Amino acid sequence: MPSISEKGKHMPPSPIRKLVPYADKAKAEGKKIYHLNIGQPDIESPKVMLDAIRNIDLKVIEYSHSAGIESYRRKLISYYKKYNININFEDILITTGGSEAIEIAMMTCLNEGDEIIIPEPFYANYNGFSTQAGVTVVPVFSSIRNGFALPPHDVFEKVITPRTKAIMICNPSNPTGHLYSKEELQSLRDLALKHDLYLFADEVYREFCYDNNSYFSIMHLEGLDENIILLDSISKRYSACGARIGAMISKNKKVMSTAMKFAQARLSPPTFGQIAAEAAIDTPQEYFDNVKAEYVARRNFVIEQLNSMPGVFCAKPSGAFYCMAELPIDDSDTFCQWLLEKFSYKGQTVMLAPATGFYSHAELGKKEVRIAYVLNLDDLKNAMICLNEALKVYPGRVENISNNTIVMQ
Amino acid sequence: MPSISEKGKHMPPSPIRKLVPYADKAKAEGKKIYHLNIGQPDIESPKVMLDAIRNIDLKVIEYSHSAGIESYRRKLISYYKKYNININFEDILITTGGSEAIEIAMMTCLNEGDEIIIPEPFYANYNGFSTQAGVTVVPVFSSIRNGFALPPHDVFEKVITPRTKAIMICNPSNPTGHLYSKEELQSLRDLALKHDLYLFADEVYREFCYDNNSYFSIMHLEGLDENIILLDSISKRYSACGARIGAMISKNKKVMSTAMKFAQARLSPPTFGQIAAEAAIDTPQEYFDNVKAEYVARRNFVIEQLNSMPGVFCAKPSGAFYCMAELPIDDSDTFCQWLLEKFSYKGQTVMLAPATGFYSHAELGKKEVRIAYVLNLDDLKNAMICLNEALKVYPGRVENISNNTIVMQ
Known about the structure:
The structure is a homodimer of 409-residue chains.
Chain A: H1 6-10, H2 20-28, E1 32-35, H3 47-54, H4 70-81, E2 92-95, H5 97-109, E3 115-120, H6 125-133, E4 136-141, H7 153-159, E5 164-170, H8 182-195, E6 198-202, E7 228-233, E8 246-249, H9 253-265, H10 271-280, H11 285-308, E9 313-314, E10 322-326, H12 332-341, E11 348-351, E12 353-354, E13 368-372, H13 377-393, E14 398-401, E15 404-407
Parallel strand pairs in A: 1-11, 3-4, 3-5, 5-6, 6-7
Antiparallel strand pairs in A: 2-8, 7-8, 9-10, 10-13, 12-13, 14-15
């Protein structure tokens, strides 16, 4: 029997999806599970988008251009212009979800053994894409205690080596909900220019910025056109995760022509998804206003509930639809599995994502979980009741005293 | 300005798509182009498939399971059973086109620097996927003069090294149209068992086997379950290239659980495409009978026409919808570009794929082109007239005399 690859061995399983078998078993046993573990919103996709699919008049489901349907790429320019992002049609490569945008960007820009600096906690799949590309993730620690703000300049300087080739952020951030300020981004620009680094930004949550905080994109930075790679997706924007449509955007011509070679090898992004995505650009502003109001209500509810539970701490996020919560527990992996396997309250339980998967140093996430507030308020209410009850009886409960901990049993 | 990756530099541009800018220019000048350069059929997709899309009743375009929608995977079992391929639901990973099946299979099974033996000429994008995975393609030569039959056993033995990890075929073959016999596949089985190699087969053209030749799949080989990886796609089967739905299939549990980690990183294959693909399994047999009859007529016409042109040789393919033709030309890249840039006959020209991109040793393809007979008979007729006229006036025409050549100018 031939062996599997080293890359395959080192590829991390998804921390968000690895608990799925336990959830399946719990459901089979009749338990109701509230899924706060995955960024799959319950929000309806825009009507214009679904109508475009229902009215499709294709006879042959053809390949599109490898860079994406031209009319869609051209129409996207107007979408970005609303955010004061000025790009040309040639700067856009349509990808199969944001996932492929990251894969292609990494293969295009980084060599095996190169290092990419990412503030942790970060979206767990960045680990997977880095493993695929043979790239080493160098984390810089951001703390729940100051709302996961960007670590200061000197923290980056300390970890920059001759192998450092890029810095990557997610803005607004999955998993923390942190919205990076203009000053934080300018600090990254200075680093990128000084050390000649690529600056990758995954901005798939730009529609979800709250409390009148303004969104500042890496595309707003000046004098950095050759270094900036914007990674995007329509998955969250239109609650259309299954369309698998994203984009890689850069004004660096060499990067885009190289990325195009990878894009040609896989032929084209999905045609149906692109048709839906093109139509979605006409989504009325009212849709986004309603969605944002809904998420603000959910966030406010969840944050208030969490912070009222003894021993729980949660910073108030300014964007995306996630929060990280510090819980009075021994181990978030054990706890999340226990919630599915051993716990129920009135026949119900809650599924969370252990934060260990969002840190390069897994131990930093042992007391934290990521909560995606992607369910309606009624469901969130029940989910919070479950979590509160669970924390009362969890055998691995630990009391936090400042930075020290006492195991209760 | 940061540099691009070594992989990016070495990534081959698509030989099938690299002439596109010349074609765009020719079209802008008003030339009619017959596209025989790409496997994008003009055949209509099945009605059941398009109806499923038009009748979609989703409210939220959700992610699917990372391995694909479960009902689709279960239904696929019946599809394969019709071909006497007996697999379980767990043996199937739904991918974003056949392209992603190849990418994931390579990353799962092969290390950087490992070697994969592929009979040449082969589908050009195998080069791209190998470059992405850091894998070295070791070609074994198959000749147009004996219909691109599998090279004999000892040719493989000569190139097998300690780094050899897999053999890959495309059956029926793109670009040659060769349909591998049971004996050829058994010969590959012996090699795979003797040297403990993976055997990859891209069988996306199984619906296109002609002249009562029977299709023999690698899945029909016995005693090789741990070594076999089937790479599949619905793109050609249902003329649905843009749906981007494929599959990676293996009974090797370790391979599939490792592949699943790569699949989880990219979240899920496209939802719309999967819905269409699931519906397509109910396509009536009449559809395939009509499509096959159409392709047989096209093939017969094209082969007859080609072989009637002075200096042209073309073997009669038994499968897929391609043929390789040897032309009396100096250089197929130059010729194909000239067809677009310099030539027209009654305002028309033809676009072909230079065979250089299908050989690891590009010089072997300098006198050959790949022709995809994916247009209707009227268009094919005009395309063949164009080619015939072009060969009469092409400045780089060369007369073939046995294996020697005389340049005419």
